[in-house]
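In response to the reviewer comment on reproducibility (Comment 2.3), we provide here a single inverse folding case reported in full, input and output, so that an independent group could reproduce the run without further information from us. The C-alpha coordinates appear first.
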Protein backbone atom coordinates (compact mmCIF):
# COMPACT_ATOMS: atom_id res chain seq x y z
CA UNK A 1 0.00 0.00 0.00
CA UNK A 2 1.47 3.43 -0.91
CA UNK A 3 2.83 5.26 2.11
CA UNK A 4 0.92 8.46 1.30
CA UNK A 5 -2.34 6.47 1.31
CA UNK A 6 -1.48 4.91 4.68
CA UNK A 7 -0.89 8.30 6.28
CA UNK A 8 -3.95 9.96 4.71
CA UNK A 9 -6.11 7.12 6.04
CA UNK A 10 -4.48 7.32 9.46
CA UNK A 11 -5.07 11.06 9.74
CA UNK A 12 -8.70 10.66 8.56
CA UNK A 13 -9.33 7.98 11.19
CA UNK A 14 -7.74 10.12 13.90
CA UNK A 15 -9.85 13.12 12.99
CA UNK A 16 -13.08 11.10 12.83
CA UNK A 17 -12.43 9.09 15.98
CA UNK A 18 -11.72 11.97 18.31
CA UNK A 19 -14.24 14.43 16.98
CA UNK A 20 -16.65 13.57 19.80
CA UNK A 21 -14.16 14.62 22.46
CA UNK A 22 -13.31 17.89 20.75
CA UNK A 23 -16.98 18.78 20.43
CA UNK A 24 -18.13 17.48 23.81
CA UNK A 25 -15.25 18.26 26.12
CA UNK A 26 -12.76 20.75 24.64
CA UNK A 27 -13.74 22.86 21.66
CA UNK A 28 -10.24 23.73 20.46
CA UNK A 29 -11.13 26.45 17.99
CA UNK A 30 -8.76 26.53 15.00
CA UNK A 31 -6.30 24.22 16.79
CA UNK A 32 -4.42 21.69 14.69
CA UNK A 33 -4.59 18.03 15.70
CA UNK A 34 -1.11 16.54 16.02
CA UNK A 35 -1.51 13.44 18.19
CA UNK A 36 -3.33 11.44 20.84
CA UNK A 37 -2.93 10.62 24.51
CA UNK A 38 -1.74 7.01 24.68
CA UNK A 39 -1.24 6.47 28.42
CA UNK A 40 -2.19 8.29 31.62
CA UNK A 41 -1.30 7.89 35.26
CA UNK A 42 -3.22 9.72 37.98
CA UNK A 43 -4.33 13.26 37.03
CA UNK A 44 -2.91 15.29 34.13
CA UNK A 45 -4.04 18.43 32.33
CA UNK A 46 -3.78 20.09 28.97
CA UNK A 47 -4.54 23.64 27.96
CA UNK A 48 -5.14 23.95 24.21
CA UNK A 49 -4.68 27.45 22.78
CA UNK A 50 -7.66 29.69 23.37
CA UNK A 51 -9.56 27.22 25.55
CA UNK A 52 -9.86 26.24 29.19
CA UNK A 53 -7.60 23.81 31.02
CA UNK A 54 -8.94 20.24 30.80
CA UNK A 55 -8.10 16.91 32.35
CA UNK A 56 -6.55 14.51 29.86
CA UNK A 57 -7.76 10.94 29.42
CA UNK A 58 -6.80 8.07 27.13
CA UNK A 59 -7.21 8.87 23.42
CA UNK A 60 -7.88 12.54 24.03
CA UNK A 61 -6.60 14.81 21.24
CA UNK A 62 -3.37 16.77 21.48
CA UNK A 63 -3.12 19.95 19.43
CA UNK A 64 -0.54 22.45 18.29
CA UNK A 65 0.70 24.85 20.99
CA UNK A 66 -0.92 22.87 23.79
CA UNK A 67 0.43 23.22 27.34
CA UNK A 68 0.66 19.89 29.21
CA UNK A 69 1.17 19.43 32.94
CA UNK A 70 1.22 16.43 35.25
CA UNK A 71 0.35 16.07 38.93
CA UNK A 72 2.78 15.00 41.65
CA UNK A 73 1.92 11.35 41.03
CA UNK A 74 0.94 11.75 37.40
CA UNK A 75 2.25 10.90 33.99
CA UNK A 76 1.10 11.11 30.38
CA UNK A 77 2.29 9.58 27.11
CA UNK A 78 1.52 11.22 23.77
CA UNK A 79 1.96 9.83 20.27
CA UNK A 80 2.40 12.31 17.43
CA UNK A 81 1.21 11.67 13.88
CA UNK A 82 4.76 10.75 12.85
CA UNK A 83 4.76 8.06 15.58
CA UNK A 84 7.14 9.93 17.85
CA UNK A 85 6.25 9.07 21.43
CA UNK A 86 7.01 11.21 24.46
CA UNK A 87 6.19 10.58 28.10
CA UNK A 88 6.02 13.22 30.83
CA UNK A 89 6.73 12.05 34.35
CA UNK A 90 5.30 13.53 37.56
CA UNK A 91 5.32 17.28 38.31
CA UNK A 92 6.26 18.18 34.74
CA UNK A 93 5.27 21.02 32.42
CA UNK A 94 5.75 21.12 28.65
CA UNK A 95 4.57 23.22 25.71
CA UNK A 96 4.30 21.71 22.23
CA UNK A 97 5.66 24.83 20.59
CA UNK A 98 5.89 23.48 17.05
CA UNK A 99 4.89 20.31 15.22
CA UNK A 100 4.76 20.37 11.42
CA UNK A 101 4.84 16.99 9.69
CA UNK A 102 5.09 15.96 6.03
CA UNK A 103 4.42 12.21 5.77
CA UNK A 104 5.57 12.05 2.16
CA UNK A 105 9.01 13.50 2.87
CA UNK A 106 9.17 11.93 6.33
CA UNK A 107 10.20 15.28 7.73
CA UNK A 108 8.99 17.05 10.83
CA UNK A 109 9.80 20.36 12.42
CA UNK A 110 9.29 19.87 16.13
CA UNK A 111 10.05 22.07 19.13
CA UNK A 112 9.12 20.90 22.63
CA UNK A 113 9.69 23.24 25.57
CA UNK A 114 10.14 21.42 28.89
CA UNK A 115 10.18 23.96 31.72
CA UNK A 116 10.36 21.54 34.66
CA UNK A 117 10.15 17.82 35.33
CA UNK A 118 11.17 14.75 33.35
CA UNK A 119 10.37 13.40 29.91
CA UNK A 120 11.29 10.47 27.73
CA UNK A 121 11.21 10.86 23.95
CA UNK A 122 11.36 8.04 21.40
CA UNK A 123 11.70 8.95 17.75
CA UNK A 124 9.20 8.16 15.04
CA UNK A 125 9.36 9.04 11.35
CA UNK A 126 11.13 12.35 11.18
CA UNK A 127 14.16 14.32 10.12
CA UNK A 128 15.98 14.60 13.44
CA UNK A 129 17.92 17.73 12.47
CA UNK A 130 14.66 19.71 12.61
CA UNK A 131 13.66 18.54 16.07
CA UNK A 132 14.66 20.27 19.29
CA UNK A 133 13.86 20.05 22.98
CA UNK A 134 14.28 23.35 24.80
CA UNK A 135 14.69 23.82 28.56
CA UNK A 136 15.46 27.01 30.52
CA UNK A 137 19.22 26.38 30.14
CA UNK A 138 19.60 23.85 27.35
CA UNK A 139 18.92 23.16 23.67
CA UNK A 140 18.85 19.50 22.65
CA UNK A 141 19.12 18.40 19.04
CA UNK A 142 17.38 15.17 18.14
CA UNK A 143 19.44 12.61 16.24
CA UNK A 144 17.42 9.61 17.41
CA UNK A 145 16.15 7.74 18.99
CA UNK A 146 15.56 7.46 22.78
CA UNK A 147 16.51 9.81 25.61
CA UNK A 148 15.53 11.03 29.07
CA UNK A 149 15.52 14.78 29.77
CA UNK A 150 15.22 16.03 33.33
CA UNK A 151 14.85 19.69 34.37
CA UNK A 152 15.20 20.92 37.97
CA UNK A 153 13.43 23.91 39.49
CA UNK A 154 16.51 26.10 38.90
CA UNK A 155 16.60 25.15 35.21
CA UNK A 156 19.59 22.84 35.39
CA UNK A 157 19.13 20.02 32.90
CA UNK A 158 20.40 16.48 32.50
CA UNK A 159 20.18 14.38 29.33
CA UNK A 160 20.60 10.61 29.38
CA UNK A 161 20.65 8.83 26.02
CA UNK A 162 19.36 5.26 25.83
CA UNK A 163 19.67 4.85 22.06
CA UNK A 164 21.05 6.92 19.19
CA UNK A 165 22.78 10.28 19.58
CA UNK A 166 21.72 13.72 20.77
CA UNK A 167 23.48 17.09 20.61
CA UNK A 168 23.31 19.08 23.84
CA UNK A 169 24.22 22.77 24.13
CA UNK A 170 23.59 25.63 26.49
CA UNK A 171 20.94 28.18 25.52
CA UNK A 172 23.26 30.55 23.67
CA UNK A 173 25.02 27.74 21.83
CA UNK A 174 28.45 28.68 23.14
CA UNK A 175 29.15 25.21 24.53
CA UNK A 176 27.92 21.89 23.16
CA UNK A 177 28.60 18.15 23.20
CA UNK A 178 27.30 15.04 21.49
CA UNK A 179 25.86 12.36 23.74
CA UNK A 180 25.56 8.74 22.60
CA UNK A 181 23.81 5.64 23.90
CA UNK A 182 24.47 4.82 27.57
CA UNK A 183 25.93 8.29 28.14
CA UNK A 184 24.65 11.35 29.96
CA UNK A 185 25.51 15.02 30.42
CA UNK A 186 24.30 17.87 32.62
CA UNK A 187 23.95 21.60 32.03
CA UNK A 188 24.09 23.78 35.13
CA UNK A 189 21.68 26.55 36.06
CA UNK A 190 24.27 29.03 34.78
CA UNK A 191 24.57 27.27 31.41
CA UNK A 192 27.82 25.40 31.91
CA UNK A 193 27.90 22.11 29.99
CA UNK A 194 29.51 19.33 31.98
CA UNK A 195 31.60 16.42 30.80
CA UNK A 196 29.94 13.44 29.15
CA UNK A 197 29.82 10.48 31.53
CA UNK A 198 28.39 6.97 31.73
CA UNK A 199 24.60 6.98 31.78
CA UNK A 200 21.72 4.57 32.38
CA UNK A 201 20.84 1.75 30.02
CA UNK A 202 17.10 1.74 30.77
CA UNK A 203 14.47 4.35 31.52
CA UNK A 204 13.65 5.27 35.14
CA UNK A 205 10.36 4.34 36.74
CA UNK A 206 8.98 7.89 36.66
CA UNK A 207 8.63 7.76 32.86
CA UNK A 208 7.32 4.19 32.68
CA UNK A 209 3.52 4.12 32.51
CA UNK A 210 1.75 0.74 32.32
CA UNK A 211 0.07 -0.06 29.02
CA UNK A 212 -3.66 0.64 29.01
CA UNK A 213 -6.83 0.24 26.97
CA UNK A 214 -9.55 2.85 26.52
CA UNK A 215 -12.34 2.10 28.95
CA UNK A 216 -9.96 0.62 31.51
CA UNK A 217 -7.86 3.06 33.47
CA UNK A 218 -4.90 0.76 34.00
CA UNK A 219 -2.63 1.42 36.93
CA UNK A 220 -4.29 4.51 38.32
CA UNK A 221 -5.10 5.85 34.87
CA UNK A 222 -8.29 7.77 34.13
CA UNK A 223 -11.08 6.26 32.09
CA UNK A 224 -12.17 8.34 29.13
CA UNK A 225 -15.45 10.17 29.84
CA UNK A 226 -18.37 8.17 28.54
CA UNK A 227 -16.52 4.90 28.87
CA UNK A 228 -18.99 3.57 31.38
CA UNK A 229 -18.74 3.33 35.16
CA UNK A 230 -19.24 6.08 37.68
CA UNK A 231 -15.68 7.25 38.24
CA UNK A 232 -14.08 8.81 35.15
CA UNK A 233 -10.76 9.31 36.87
CA UNK A 234 -10.43 6.39 39.20
CA UNK A 235 -9.19 3.65 36.92
CA UNK A 236 -12.40 1.59 37.12
CA UNK A 237 -13.58 -0.69 34.36
CA UNK A 238 -15.73 1.03 31.74
CA UNK A 239 -19.07 -0.68 32.07
CA UNK A 240 -19.91 -4.36 32.50
CA UNK A 241 -17.77 -5.53 29.61
CA UNK A 242 -14.98 -2.99 30.07
CA UNK A 243 -15.56 -1.47 26.65
CA UNK A 244 -16.08 2.09 25.60
CA UNK A 245 -19.72 3.19 25.33
CA UNK A 246 -19.20 6.28 23.23
CA UNK A 247 -19.38 4.93 19.68
CA UNK A 248 -15.68 5.09 18.86
CA UNK A 249 -13.26 2.18 18.72
CA UNK A 250 -11.04 1.61 21.73
CA UNK A 251 -7.97 1.64 19.47
CA UNK A 252 -9.10 4.66 17.42
CA UNK A 253 -8.25 2.76 14.26
CA UNK A 254 -4.61 2.33 15.26
CA UNK A 255 -4.65 -1.46 15.59
CA UNK A 256 -2.60 -2.14 12.47
CA UNK A 257 0.86 -3.67 12.24
CA UNK A 258 2.47 -0.52 13.59
CA UNK A 259 0.45 0.04 16.74
CA UNK A 260 -0.99 -1.96 19.59
CA UNK A 261 -4.27 -1.71 21.46
CA UNK A 262 -2.71 -1.27 24.87
CA UNK A 263 -1.58 2.31 24.53
CA UNK A 264 1.66 1.90 22.55
CA UNK A 265 3.62 -0.34 24.89
CA UNK A 266 7.09 1.19 25.09
CA UNK A 267 7.75 -0.15 28.56
CA UNK A 268 11.29 -0.93 29.51
CA UNK A 269 10.80 -4.58 30.32
CA UNK A 270 12.07 -5.37 26.85
CA UNK A 271 12.71 -1.86 25.51
CA UNK A 272 10.37 -2.85 22.74
CA UNK A 273 10.03 0.43 20.87
CA UNK A 274 11.98 -1.06 17.98
CA UNK A 275 9.13 -3.48 17.37
CA UNK A 276 6.37 -0.90 17.43
CA UNK A 277 7.81 1.39 14.75
CA UNK A 278 8.33 0.78 11.06
CA UNK A 279 11.66 -0.55 9.91
CA UNK A 280 12.20 1.93 7.11
CA UNK A 281 15.86 1.24 6.72
CA UNK A 282 16.63 4.89 6.00
CA UNK A 283 16.02 6.59 9.34
CA UNK A 284 19.58 7.53 10.04
CA UNK A 285 20.51 4.21 11.60
CA UNK A 286 18.33 4.73 14.61
CA UNK A 287 17.23 1.14 14.89
CA UNK A 288 13.67 1.69 13.64
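Designed residues, in position order:
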Amino acid sequence: MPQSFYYSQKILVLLTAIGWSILSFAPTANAELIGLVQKVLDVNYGTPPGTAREQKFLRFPIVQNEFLETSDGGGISVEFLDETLFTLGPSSSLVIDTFVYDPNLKEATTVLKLSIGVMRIISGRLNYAKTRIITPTTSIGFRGSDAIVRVAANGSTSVAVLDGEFSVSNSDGSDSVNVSASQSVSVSATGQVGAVSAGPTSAPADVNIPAQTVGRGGSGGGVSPGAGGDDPGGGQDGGDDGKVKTGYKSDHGLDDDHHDDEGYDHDDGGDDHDDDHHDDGDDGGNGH
